[in-house]
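hey can u run this one w/ zinc ion bound, need the structure tokens asap thx
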Amino acid sequence: MSEQRKTLDERYTMTELERLRHSCAHVLASAILRIWPQAQFAAGPPVENGFYYDLEIDHRISLDDFERIEAEMKKIVKENQPFEKIEVSREQAFAMAREGRLGALGPREQPSKFKLDILEHIPEGEAISLYRNGDFTDLCAGPHVMRTGNIGAFKLTSVASAYYKGDANNPQLQRVYGTAFKNRTELDAYFAQLEEAKKRDHRKLGRELGLFQIDEQVGQGLILWKPKGAVIRQQLQNFIGQELRKHGYSEVFTPHIAKLDLFRTSGHYPYYRESQFPPLIEPEALRHLADEGCSCAQLANLLEKGELDGYLLKPMNCPMHIKIYASELRSYRDLPVRLSEFGTVYRWEQSGELGGMTRVRGFTQDDGHLFCTEEQLSAELRQCLELGLNVLRVLGLNQFRARIGLRDPDSSKYVGTPAQWDKAEVALKQIAVQSKISFTEEEGEAAFYGPKIDFIVKDVIGREWQLGTIQVDYNLPERFDLTYIDSDNTPKRPVMIHRAPFGSLERFCGVLIEHFAGAFPLWLAPEQVRILPISDKHLTYGRQILSLLKAANIRASLDESSDKIGAKIRLAQLEKVPYMLVLGAREEQAGEVAVRSRLRGDEGAVSAPHFLERIQQEITDRKLD
Ligand SMILES: [Zn+2]
Ligand SMILES: [Zn+2]
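ok here u go:
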């Protein structure tokens, strides 16, 4: 097969699983050709979670065809055909393509047109290889598994249309997707995980549990936090805020807009214009321009060149925190200065990319900026990492890895001196080792202004989520000419750290909804306790219990409906309320409550104060279940 042109290196770095899936794409093509010998194949690379192959035939492939195609594929796997690599000259390859023999079972009337095109784009002098399994020959650089029999288990998953080479000017092809694994068990586990992921989808649960809303009239990618969702967010903010204060942060608030000039100094404008909402212009200035007959094109031009002032919805909080730092004369004794803010920022995302809480146009970062001396950098980075890891542990997100982005040693695009970089990079690696998390180092993945760590967290069902980051910055202190007075009375430049361990509260909550499948632990649950009287006779007792819980700041409610107790329990269970208190004659007489846990079912009767004490402890401990 021929994939979108990757370098040879990239192709040879296919993982074992990618190689298997890639080989399965060949098997798919062989099978399709047994049914539709005239099929013209284009590209078929492995992709995340599987593979695809693009092809052109007269027949419109549908899910109904999958059984037939899979049956042929099974035969080919069973035949255990070896994958054979054949080196050919450029001329031989072209000759075969013209005879229709590439991506085919043999010579055909029509040339292999897409393969011809791909061949034409292979630079002169680059080695060309074909791969053969059974009668099927394809243009391909490999690599593959040894034999078709090595493909343990596979399944076709969907079919879509795709333009050849992703270009709308090119013919539209059919793209058949599938996935493959070493064995049946892994394939089944994968589909089970997909099923589970569907049930946990935060868009679905967010709607069902009344946590958040996206309203077309408000705008795509803009989250409305409903009361229950707001409780979760507020609890998270309280918790993170507490941790931040322990770590010596000072909380600040900054506005949602600032003058363009600020973002020009920071470099966020106009360089990242594509990912920002267009600037806001002062009414006076706008009227003046209109009077002068300024056209839209002229206006855009003025803004771009910076000859007009205006405001920008902030895409970042950093420049404002920098201004707070710079608002006072700082001495080395004041450092480190640690500023934090749940700061809401706005980015322009293409509407096609928006979905639920994980991709949005307005979001609140758990942002923080640290200003410190070179000597303090390592300790501050360690503290940032610990803070992030601690919060993840409390939430039961116990599996994470870090990706350390280092500079490309051959590039000169970086600001800061090599000595500064060495120090920061060594510090990042050291703290990753010391905190015993698994991490990878990736050269060339640093920002131009400094090295960084990105967090990748695995949820309960094994999916990976990229959350926040810790970044060292040598650039902004320079741009804003930040200083502190050192012990020798000379002004020095502080180093800056940006850190947002969770990226954004929206994204983080989205991940948490899926992680907990909507069943939030007691301390986060929007409704912690629901009181369920067996009949109206016990409503008064129910109200007493309710006021007892409310006085203790427990988020409780009383089910006053005339439903049967079974129905009341089912509803509370469905709404994932951690504790239910069932009240009948016996409980009322004894001054007790019959406790029912969402997870463990009936837990027996205890006195109301006893129950209260117990859940208060669970809340303080932030117990997970
Ligand atoms: Zn191949
Ligand atoms: Zn920042």
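The first strand starts at residue 40 and ends at 41. anyway lmk if its weird
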